[in-house]
């Protein structure tokens, strides 16, 4: 499962992953939650990043600023796309569970 989480984190970013974390917590999927948290922490250290571990105003602001400054794109659009990406991550997790 860790490989899927890492792949999806690199593919879609930390905001959708934090949204997945919230959804999984609500339905009691604590093993997946633990894998997500560990992956975020490990990648924060490995790549000298300050990845948040919970979805809050600070995390959203961090993402929006990054999109505006690095890519000259609207952070609001990027955030709204996160719901779609969240669903894609959950599909990948479910696919891995079936195997």
Percentage of residues assigned to helices = over 70%
- Report the C-alpha radius of gyration, rounded: 13 Å
Following the backbone from N to C, one meets helices and strands in this order, namely: HHHHH
Question: Quick one: overall form?
Answer: globular
Q: For the terminal residues, how far apart are their CA atoms? A: 11 Å
Mean pLDDT: 93
Structural class: mainly alpha
Poorly predicted regions are none
Largest sheet: none
Extended strand count = 0
Beta-strand proportion: under 5%
- Total of DSSP H or I helical runs spanning 4+ residues: 5
Overview of this protein structure:
The chain has 99 residues and is mostly helical. The protein has five helices and no strands.
Short description:
This protein has 99 residues and is mostly helical.
Write the layout of secondary structure elements.
Blueprint: H1 2-12, H2 14-26, H3 30-46, H4 57-71, H5 75-98
Helix pairs in contact: 1-2, 1-3, 1-5, 2-3, 2-5, 4-5
Features:
globular, 99 residues, 81% helix
């Amino acid at each position: 499962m860790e490989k899927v989480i890492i792949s999806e984190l690199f593919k879609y970013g930390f905001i959708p992953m934090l949204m997945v974390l919230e959804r999984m917590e609500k339905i009691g999927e604590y093993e997946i939650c633990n894998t997500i948290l560990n992956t975020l922490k490990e990648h924060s250290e490995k790549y000298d990043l300050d990845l948040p571990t919970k979805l809050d105003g600070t995390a959203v602001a961090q993402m929006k600023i990054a999109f505006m400054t690095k890519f000259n794109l609207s952070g609001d659009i990027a955030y709204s796309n996160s719901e779609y990406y969240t669903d894609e991550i959950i599909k990948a997790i479910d696919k891995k569970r079936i195997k």
